[in-house]
């Protein structure tokens, strides 16, 4: 299986929970974040594809290597249907350096992926 095949198989099952800008302590500006509800099976297949034997992939690496930001940007599914009105702006900020963290949900079939822009910090 290729990365493209993986994304084709699971992309329509991804849900955007929230996207906004949030303050980060000692940062020069707010940081963009995006909360995605994704199938855990997608992550398992990604790990098999990468030849990694871990419980979960690195969230930031998964975000970058799958091209998920571009897929979201180019998908009609998430635009103009009551979803985040500023999604394109959020995705612009998430093209740079990001943190990726997972949060368990009540269902073992799905997991939340939190993608947050790494902001610039003030020098101490």
Estimated helix fraction = 25-40%
Strand order of the largest sheet: 1-2-4-3
Question: Main sheet, how many strands, which sense, barrel?
Answer: 4 strands, antiparallel
Mean pLDDT: 90
Shape: globular
Number of domains: 1
What is the helix/strand order? HEEHHHHEE
Please give the count of helices.
5
Class from helix and strand fractions:
alpha+beta
Q: Radius of gyration, rounded?
A: 15 Å
Question: What would your notes on this structure say?
Answer:
It is a single chain. By secondary structure, the protein is α+β, with helices and mostly antiparallel strands. The protein has one domain. The protein is 33% helix and 26% strand. It is built from five helices and four strands. The protein has helices spanning 3-10, 40-50, 59-66, 68-74, 87-93; strands spanning 15-22, 31-39, 98-104, 110-117. It is globular, with a radius of gyration of 15 Å. It starts with a helix and ends in a 7-residue tail after the last strand.
Describe the structure concisely.
The protein is built from five helices and four strands, in the order αββααααββ.
């Amino acid at each position: 299986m290729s990365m493209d095949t993986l994304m084709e198989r699971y992309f329509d099952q991804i849900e955007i929970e929230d996207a906004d800008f949030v303050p980060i302590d000692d940062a020069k500006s707010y940081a963009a974040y995006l909360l995605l509800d994704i199938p855990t099976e997608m992550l398992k297949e990604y790990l098999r594809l990468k030849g990694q034997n871990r419980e979960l992939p690195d969230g930031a690496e998964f975000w970058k290597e799958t091209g998920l930001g571009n897929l979201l940007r180019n998908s009609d599914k998430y635009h103009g249907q009551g979803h985040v009105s500023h999604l394109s702006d959020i995705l612009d900020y998430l093209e740079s350096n990001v943190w990726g963290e997972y949060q368990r949900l009540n269902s073992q079939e799905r997991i939340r992926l939190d993608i947050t822009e790494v902001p610039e910090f003030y020098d101490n």
